[in-house]
Design a protein that fits this description.
The chain is about 15% helix and about 15% strand. It has 2 helices and 4 strands; from the N terminus they run ββαββα. The longest helix is centred in the last third of the chain and has 10 residues, at about 105-115. This is MTC6 protein. It comes from Fopius arisanus.
Length: about 120
């Protein structure tokens, strides 16, 4: 959680540092969660794929090497890399189906901000 700093020298600018370091949260409940680049506490397995475009474990930020676009979104891919159903980091411009918790408050928000959406 924080600000995107994607130009040379930005790491030396305190005004561009994240406001809330390790500020990951589950949007439906607004509860803080641990960082998602490691096995979540209490999980018996690693949800991240062990492969991807660069044939390296996820997250790998592979698209940055391709077109300088950061992979700041999570996608649950279904065997795209012969890896079963697994988490991958992807650039956020990719249109993918959305996984949405069945939460009345969240569903009302989605309906109100997306007229005509079929939920």
């Amino acid at each position: 959680a924080g600000r995107i700093c994607d130009f040379a020298g930005c790491e030396n600018r305190p005004d561009l540092e994240p406001k809330n370091v390790y500020g990951w949260f589950w949007s439906a409940t607004r509860e803080k969660i641990q960082a998602t680049n490691r096995i979540p506490q209490g999980w018996g397995y690693n949800p991240w794929s062990q492969t991807g475009h660069k044939k390296r474990p996820q997250p790998d930020n592979a698209e940055y090497d391709i077109n300088q676009t950061k992979e700041q979104c999570l996608s649950v891919l279904n065997n795209v890399y012969n890896d079963g159903i697994a988490w991958h980091d992807v650039a956020c411009y990719h249109e993918k189906p959305v996984i949405c918790e069945d939460n009345d408050e969240l569903l009302r928000y989605v309906a109100a901000t997306n007229p005509g959406i079929r939920l």
